[in-house]
Design brief:
The chain has 249 residues and is of the alpha+beta class. The protein is built from four helices and 17 strands. The model has no long low-confidence stretch (mean pLDDT 83).
Amino acid sequence: MRKSENMEFFNALKDEMLPPERNKLDPSLNWLISSLFNYKKLERDDYFDLIIEPNIAWNQGNLFLPDRYSYKVSGDTLNKVYHPEFEVPEWFDNESLGYITYGPYNHIIYHQDTFEHVLSNKKYDLIRTAHGIVVQTAEKFKWLFISDYNLTGAPEKLRWPSIEDIVFDGDYIFVKQSLRPFSVYNLYIINIESGKLARFKYLLFENSPHGEDTNEEPFLIKDGYLILNDCEEPMELNLKSLYERFESI
């Protein structure tokens, strides 16, 4: 298709089928692709089953979401972002050129045109979208988390927001991620400065028998402990030990 004699047809087809092409990733898609190259699944850790270190730098200026766009990929990036539902088809050539079509508008639900500021302290302003979390200061911002079905988990439908409760603790945040329509959810810990994050391995229930009738918070920080009320049995995790383990992985 990309032979010189086919390029006129190829470009016409691309212009017809794909949204406008960008030659630079926006910060949200950059987070996703960087995370695909920098994650590790854990099988025997006491706390976590997934670690991601996106290594994302701060972005200068104001937070933004671009219009839907396409981006050219090849080589290792093409292999990382291509997720066939079943086996890789015979026609797929991992040495070829491909295009990502990305719709950042899915971060905004119900046609809202603003981001939701959810938490602030002396250092940071935390912003939530339907499927992501951004940290912002007076002059810069960076993405901390984005729900992705194959990487972090996500609801089955994009119209169901996935980012629910967020709790601050110094330079760390804890994030409850909905997995609708299922009755369980993920809990993540994120280091705001480094961007490193981990997913707790515990099975957490949306309507646990412990919190259902008592209006208990699903998780909270109290007296140096992370308290999880939505496990099969409530748990208390020492924060000092938790942070030490998280940073050592």
